[in-house]
Amino acid sequence: MTQRVQTLIVGAGQAGLALSRCLTRTGHDHIILERGLVGQRWRSERWDSFRLLTPNWYNRLPGWEYTGHDPDGFMDRREVISWFERYAESFDAPVRTGVSVSDVYRADHGWSVHTDAGRFDADNVVIASGHYDRAQVPQVAQTLPRRTHQLHSRRYRNPARIPPGGVLVVGAGPSGQQIADELARAGRRVFLSVGRHRPLPRRYRGRDVYYWMDRSGMLDRTVDTLPDPLAAQQAPSVVLAGEPENLDLRRMVRNGVVPVGRMEGIDGEEFRFAADLPERLHEADDNVRRIRAAVDRYVARTGLHVPEEPFAPTRTEPWVVGAPRRLHLLHDGINTVIWATGFSRDFSWIHAPVFHAQGDPVQHRGVTAAEGLYFLGLRWMHRRESNFIGGVGGDAEYLAQRLSGVRDLRAVG
Ligand SMILES: Cc1cc2nc3c(=O)[nH]c(=O)nc-3n(C[C@H](O)[C@H](O)[C@H](O)COP(=O)(O)OP(=O)(O)OC[C@H]3O[C@@H](n4cnc5c(N)ncnc54)[C@H](O)[C@@H]3O)c2cc1C
Fold first, then answer.
1. Ligand 1 centroid vs 41 CA: distance in angstroms?
2. Quick one: which atom of ligand 1 is closest to the CA of 378?
3. Whole-structure pTM over 0.90, yes or no?
4. CB atoms within 10 A of CB 16
5. Residue 128: CB within 6 Å of ligand 1?
6. Helix, strand, coil share (%) of the chain residues, nearest 5
7. Residues 37-51: pLDDT tens digits?
8. Measured from the CA of 15, which atom of ligand 1 is nearest?
9. Which atom of ligand 1 has the smallest separation from the CA of 46?
10. Residue 211 C-alpha to ligand 1 middle, in angstroms?
11. Rounded to whole angstroms, how far apart are CA atoms 332 and 121?
12. What is the pLDDT of residues 168-213, one digit of tens each?
């Protein structure tokens, strides 16, 4: 039996829920189909000790914000899940869990959505299936011997679940660095392959970096003001951890992590790494300098009274120049490889000519050229914060206004 609905949303993460909250306020007929449970990624694709990188005060969705006792803290995985569950309950979100969408086709009057629970016809379909969707692992991973345990960072849970022996973590983005740090603290021998990465200071001049980015308008910056939007969309995620301290490669080395350069390939049992660690570290330090300079300019412009914080000159440490160029699975005792190599998306289930050659949708503020087909929650979709918990709400409000025809959502609460 086919069911009919005005707007069908795919995915009950923050994006789908934020839109649903706005549509509920306007009385617009809609449902959300979710293959797992509400906030599924935070349940099945984050490690046990995970904490959000964004401070509690910044995590806000339409009609919902953090109301606990620690606005400057960082929610852990369980708190995040419960926060999303309570959000969905707060407006009785029309979520159907355990329903997987397999295909979306253009139909005579709107869209035909095929699922494992039957077919739905909808005037509008909003794809909120997540920017960080598919695990991206280099092809060369397939050449590793079968005895080597390998997994993508989204399947990592805790050190006890990793077989005994050394670990090579490939990728020094926020996930790679946090996982390497946790494993080293648990007494594991850890190598970390470091490519381009963009660390941010957790705090600067007495405030969290999100305070500065929020206040100075950095998070609000729109994609149409960027000289190279594609480069921004593909840039590595910023490196931060949900704790007051910096996630710092130098500190990790003191905890026993051995950094190596970008992985170039695997020859049988041996990994090859580029000799680029000094450049990568230099770039990373430059990134920190740039954000500090931007904050300094903002402070000078606004006359805020905050303490100065001089930048300690960075030294070229011996481990940077002497980093190994090769590691051997057997000789270096590596039993596990964790691919912290990022995510991609696969929209091949959406049968509409709205995609770039690289596979991402051509859209403006989530609106595509195919009438009634929308996206939400993509990185830099409209603003820098479009795929953050605290930022998706603005895009959701915009789409809700288009879908429901209500000009001012605030007028309906
Ligand atoms: C490791 C990591 C840490 C992050 N930390 C932060 C942070 O601290 N703060 C922050 O603001 N942002 C953070 N982000 C970014 C962002 O908030 C998350 O990626 C968030 O999960 C995005 O929410 P979303 O609703 O857009 O997508 P998702 O959370 O990915 O939700 C999409 C939903 O769609 C469902 N779905 C997908 N395909 C289908 C289908 N075919 N049929 C039915 N259902 C489907 C999925 O099960 C999922 O529940 C982090 C991202 C990652 C990867």
1. 5
2. 26
3. yes
4. 29
5. yes
6. 30, 25, 45
7. 999 999 999 999 999
8. 25
9. 1
10. 23
11. 57
12. 999 999 999 999 999 999 999 999 999 999 999 999 999 999 999 9
